[in-house]
Structures are given as C-alpha cells and as structure tokens.
C-alpha cells in the first residue's frame, strides 16, 4: 500500500473507498450482532494503562489488548520513578484493577515491529496488528536521549540521565552499565539540566546506602552507590532560576537529605521578586535560603550547588591528571555564559547585561550563547546529561504511511490524541487567475482513521504522572467520541479490521516460532511474587528485589506457556 504522506489522488480514492466500505460494514454488523470493539495499546506504562482504564470504563464489553516489549509492565513507573519515591508508584493499584478485567489482555515480552533483543522474545509486525484491530493507540514512551552535540560527549564518565536512572532502577537495557563511582573525590559531579530527573540523580547519588537499601533500587546499583565518593554536586541550567524546571517538592527532598548542604543561590535583580506567581516565588525563596547546617570546617558536608545561565561547550580529558583517572575519562567541562531573551523578540539586543536584567523574571525566557561568551571550567570526573528524551518511530511507520516528527520525537496529532496525516488540497476555489489545473496546494491535517496516541509519544517527554493520566484520558475520550459518532476506524481490505485481536495476530505472526515466550498477566504476577520474596529475604525492609535481566524474569516461569 502506498504511504499516506505520499499517496497520489487515485490511491487516496481507493483508501477512502476502503474507509467507506469499513464504515458501512460496521453499521451493518452493529444492527445484527453485538461485536465487541477491540483496541490494541502499544506500551504498558502509565499512558497505556490510563488510556485502557478510561476507555474500558466508558465502553462496556470493549476488548483491550496491551503489548509490551519487556516481560514486566508499568514502564516509567517501574524504570523511571526514583526508588525513594514509593508513593508515586501507588498508581499500580489502578493498573491492577484494569488488568483484572476479563476484557483486558496483557501481552508481554512481545516487540512490535523491531526484532526482539532476547532469544526468547517474540516479534510481531505492526501491519499484523493493524489487520486485526479496530483501532490502535501508540503509548510506548521515549527511548532515545537528546544529544548536546559538543566535543568530548563520548568520553567515559559522561552519562545520560536516562541510562543512569535505568541502571539504578533495574532496566535490563542498562544492567551492564557498571559506572565506576569511586572517582568523585577528584572534582565536582556535574548534572546538566535542572528538571525533576536531574534532582532525582543528585538525590540518589547523595542518599545514604542504609536509606536506599529500604527501597526497590537494583542490587547492583546499591552496591556501586555504597562505594561512591561523590561529594560535591553542581546542578547546571541553561536558563535562570526563575525558568528552572524542577518542582518545589523535588527541591525540598534535597533539603531533607541528612548531612547534605544545599548552598543558597543569591538572586539577581531582587526588586522584581515579589511579582512572581506564588508557586515560583515559593520555589525561588527556598532556593535562595539554602540549608541550615552548623559549621563543620574540618569535615565539609557533601554539597549541592545550583548554577544558572551556563551552556556546555566542551568536555575534555587531560592525560596529565592523576594516574587514578582511567584513560579517556572526562576530567573537565567548560561552559559558556548564556543570555536570556524574550522568545517573541526576533531581533534581540546585543546589550547582554540589559537583556538579562529585563528577562530575568520572565518565566518563558529562552537562553542563547553570544558569539564570544564568557567561559567557566569545572574540574570533574562525572557528567550526567539530563536534557530530555525523544521517542522514535516504530520500524514500519514509514512503510505504512504513519507520520512521525523526528525533530520533536512525537507522532503528529490533533492535540487530543488522533494521529494526523496530511492530504494535498487546493487552498482556494478555481478562478480566472488560478485555473483548476494550476491550483496552489497546501497540506491539510487529516485524521489517520483508527490510529491514536497518548503519553510522551503524543506530547513529548514532559510532566508528572498525574499529567500523563489526564493526557491519556483525553485520548481515550477521543476514541469514545469517534465510536459514538460512528466514525470510521481501521479500514477493511488490505488491513482487514476483523477485530479478532491477539489470537489472530499470534496465529499469523508467531506461527512456527516455538522459542517465543509470551508473558501473560498471570505470568507477570508470578514474577512479581518472586521479586517480593527476594526483597523480604534481604532483611532490610526492601519492598522487592527486582530481576534486572530478561532471562532471570523468564526463568521464574519455567517452560510453561511457550
């Protein structure tokens, strides 16, 4: 089938005939039988589960099949939320409620499109899923780090926050990261970016092993962190303190670390401070106070320092540094002083001091490097880049004509959750000055019938789980609205739309693959029980001891279910 984005008029006519036929058949079937609507959700993180919850609540007897590439569910809740934030993971109770429904099927250890990276993993083509469901929701999150694009980014000791967080949370992809954290005494540990993930990284690095031992942190991470020499941390942002992305709650969590000094940040231009909105004012006031610890000159406290209006220029390795530093390991980082500017100002002033003074309290101010910035260099052995994630398209998107914006890392959508593609249409009626065959064309958004998205692949990697929940509800409501209005869904014909779901996909895509081990919800519960038992044996009050490798997860299940 020709891709939607490049289809010619004849192809679109054929496509629209398929849609019309599908719609007619839906109406005909609805008048004679009660056929359940079957929805596929790709991804089992909070976006996927909240979409399923809302949709199933509003559509009795609808069937939902959820595909997950790992043998275990929950995505960001399991592998992204900091281990010492157990209260944030309480949403799992709601997800358990969803999974208990007879209308819900969990399909774990099954990769959609790309080949599974585990010999016991299953792979199903996206085209097969499209053939056997009425609608599909993409909720698979972000799997790629944004790059700084500066010299030295590939040096040892430079980590992305995503891989470090995945490592201490037991994500199989990073089970072998094995960061050597024993070099922290040789300089500052730098965290680039000042969102909540940056705050998590700082807190985990400074928290005592005794406290971490009571969380569900991965055992290998607890062992490495217990040997850490990290003492001084700098959290560095491109913009100013008013524009920082971290929340007051996360800042307070740093202040609560016993024996850790959070150094006060001295505000510039304090005359405008009182005009800030209350939430920003509270956060900024807390930032300017710092923590209150008694002087201890003989044994300085571990510390956290906030730096603003700095952008990384280069990471460097100097061989003349102490021999305890491994080869090709970062030893210094150079930053340039940025200038704040109004994002609506197309021709910013070159008077940088004036610009910074004027935009200091502008919450939407952006930052840029001047042609010859002032620079500052920090001695360091660890750099953590917490500058954001990106989703990537599934391998078959291009072939199937499903759009994806690679620059933003999102699936184009209408803001509600309907996937958009584009049709070429004339922007005005034929006229004497523009005959019909010479009409200018523009691209108009058009709903790709039957396809939806939710979560980070819909709006980018932003917001807390509560925001993801509301976003997922919006997508689920869009599907319900389209059902109520008897809108068209995936067309019959080449894609089938027979509504047979997982059983049909399995028969079609896994025929003859005896090695594929598909994990059901009951299988996951067996893994869950085994992890809880392992945590109890640790004797530290640990909630669970996670399995961090697929083979160990699957070993709990034995040979059953193949």
Task: Give a quick summary of the entry.
Keywords: FAD, Flavoprotein, Mitochondrion, NADP, Oxidoreductase. The chain has 562 residues and is α/β, with parallel strands linked by helices.
Indicate the low-confidence ranges by residue numbers: 1-33, 423-442
CATH A-level architecture of the largest domain: 3-Layer(bba) Sandwich
Rounded mean pLDDT is: 85
- By helix and strand content, what is the structural category? alpha/beta
- What's the number of domains? 3
Main sheet: strands, sense, barrel: 8 strands, mixed
Rg over CA atoms: 26 Å
Strand tally, please?
20
Helix content: 25-40%
Quaternary structure annotation:
single chain
CATH topology of the largest domain: FAD/NAD(P)-binding domain
Tell the overall outline: globular
Q: Tell me, what is the CATH class of the largest domain?
A: Alpha Beta
Task: Write a structural description.
- One of its GO terms (molecular function) is oxidoreductase activity.
- Belongs to the ferredoxin--NADP reductase type 1 family.
- It is found in: Mitochondrion.
- Keywords: FAD, Flavoprotein, Mitochondrion, NADP, Oxidoreductase.
- This is NADPH:adrenodoxin oxidoreductase, mitochondrial.
- This protein has 562 residues and is an alpha/beta fold.
- It has three domains: 236 residues, NAD(P)-binding Rossmann-like Domain (Rossmann fold, 3-Layer(aba) Sandwich), CATH 3.40.50; 244 residues, FAD/NAD(P)-binding domain (3-Layer(bba) Sandwich), CATH 3.50.50.60; 35 residues, no CATH class.
- It has 18 helices and 20 strands.
- Strands 8, 9, 10, 11, 12, 13, 14 and 17 form an eight-stranded mixed β-sheet that branches. A six-stranded mixed β-sheet has the order 3-2-1-6-20-19. Strands 4-5 form a two-stranded parallel sheet.
- The radius of gyration is 26 Å and the shape is globular.
- The chain starts with 8 loop residues before the first helix and ends in a 7-residue tail after the last helix.
């Amino acid at each position: 089938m020709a891709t939607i984005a490049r289809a010619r008029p004849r192809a679109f006519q054929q496509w629209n005939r398929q849609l019309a036929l599908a719609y007619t058949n839906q109406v005909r079937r609805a008048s004679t039988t009660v056929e359940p609507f079957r929805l596929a959700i790709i991804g089992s993180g909070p976006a996927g589960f909240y979409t399923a919850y809302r949709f199933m609540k509003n559509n009795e007897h609808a069937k939902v099949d959820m595909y997950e590439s790992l043998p275990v569910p929950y995505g960001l809740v399991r592998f992204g939320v900091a281990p010492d934030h157990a209260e944030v993971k309480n949403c799992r109770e709601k997800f358990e409620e969803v999974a208990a429904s007879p209308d819900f099927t969990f399909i774990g250890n099954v990769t959609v499109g790309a080949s599974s990276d585990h010999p016991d993993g299953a792979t199903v083509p996206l085209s097969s899923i499209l053939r056997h469901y009425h609608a599909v929701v993409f909720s698979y999150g972000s799997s790629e780090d944004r790059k700084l694009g500066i010299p030295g980014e590939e040096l040892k000791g430079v980590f992305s926050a995503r891989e470090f967080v995945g490592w201490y949370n037991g994500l199989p992809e990073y089970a072998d990261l094995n960061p050597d954290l024993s070099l922290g005494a040789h300089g500052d540990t730098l965290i680039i970016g000042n969102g909540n993930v940056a705050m998590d990284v700082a807190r985990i690095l400074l928290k005592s092993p005794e406290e971490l031992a009571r969380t569900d942190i991965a055992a290998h991470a607890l062992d490495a962190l217990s040997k850490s020499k990290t003492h001084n941390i700098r959290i560095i942002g491109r913009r100013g303190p008013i524009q920082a992305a971290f929340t007051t709650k996360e800042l307070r969590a740093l202040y609560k670390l016993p024996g850790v000094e959070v150094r006060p940040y001295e505000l510039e231009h304090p005359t405008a401070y009182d005009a800030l909105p209350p939430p920003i004012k509270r956060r900024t006031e807390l930032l300017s106070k710092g923590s209150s610890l008694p002087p201890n000159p003989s044994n300085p406290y571990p510390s956290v320092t906030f730096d603003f209006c700095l952008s990384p220029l280069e990471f460097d390795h100097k061989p003349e540094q102490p021999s305890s530093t491994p080869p090709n390991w970062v030893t210094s980082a150079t930053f340039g002083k940025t200038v704040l500017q109004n994002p609506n100002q197309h021709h910013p002033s070159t008077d940088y001091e004036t610009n910074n003074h004027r935009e200091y309290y502008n919450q939407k101010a952006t930052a840029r490097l001047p042609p010859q910035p002032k620079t500052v260099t920090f001695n360091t052995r660890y750099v953590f880049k917490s500058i954001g994630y990106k989703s990537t398209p599934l391998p078959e998107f291009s072939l199937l004509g499903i759009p994806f914006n690679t620059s933003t890392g999102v699936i184009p959508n209408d803001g509600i959750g309907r996937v958009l593609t584009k049709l070429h249409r004339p922007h005005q009626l034929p006229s004497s000055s523009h005959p019909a065959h010479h009409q200018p064309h523009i691209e108009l958004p058009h709903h790709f019938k039957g396809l939806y998205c939710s979560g980070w692949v819909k709006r980018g990697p932003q917001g807390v789980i509560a925001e993801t929940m509301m976003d997922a509800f919006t997508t689920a409501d869009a599907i319900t609205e389209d059902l109520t209005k008897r809108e068209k869904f995936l067309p019959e014909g080449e894609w089938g739309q027979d509504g047979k779901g997982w059983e049909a996909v399995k028969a079609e895509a896994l025929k003859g693959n005896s090695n594929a081990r598909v994990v059901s919800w009951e299988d996951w519960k067996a893994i869950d029980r085994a992890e809880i038992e392992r945590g109890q044996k640790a004797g530290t009050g640990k909630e669970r001891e996670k399995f961090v490798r697929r083979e160990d997860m699957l070993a709990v299940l034995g040979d059953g279910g193949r």
